[in-house]
Design brief:
four-stranded antiparallel beta sheet, 11 strands, mainly beta, 57% strand, 119 residues
């Protein structure tokens, strides 16, 4: 089992920046990658950015490429999402996800943190 705790959401003006953190605990040695997703009411949850725990390979949604950066600490316990040049359309609940392979893929989710971009 993996537990995820997010922090760092809040209200920011357009063009501003926020940094989200996701701390993982439990069976972290089996995590293959960690990701950030976001969801707005009435829409499906969408992948924002992902990073593999071993090699640090990243990928981003087209909508955030060049503005958001995902990173992890050296121990691989914490993942960050640095969000710059924020737009109102970035407003959503952001969820941290961890994926492990153990006789099949298992997904773990954090509780979510609200990001609101508004003037």
């Amino acid at each position: 089992q993996v537990q995820l705790v997010e922090s760092g959401g809040g209200l920011v003006q357009p063009g501003g920046s926020l940094r989200l953190s996701c701390a993982a605990s439990g069976s972290i040695a089996t995590i293959y990658d960690m990701s950030w997703y976001r969801q707005v009411p009435g829409k499906e949850r969408e992948l924002v950015a992902a990073i593999t725990t071993s090699l640090g390979r990243t990928n981003y949604a087209d909508s955030v490429q060049g503005r958001f950066t995902i990173s992890r600490d050296n121990a691989g316990n914490t993942v960050y999402l640095e969000m710059n040049s924020l737009k109102p359309e970035d407003t959503a609940v952001y969820y941290c996800n961890a994926r492990e392979y153990n006789m099949g893929w298992n997904h773990y989710w954090g509780q979510g943190t609200q990001v609101t971009v508004s003037s």
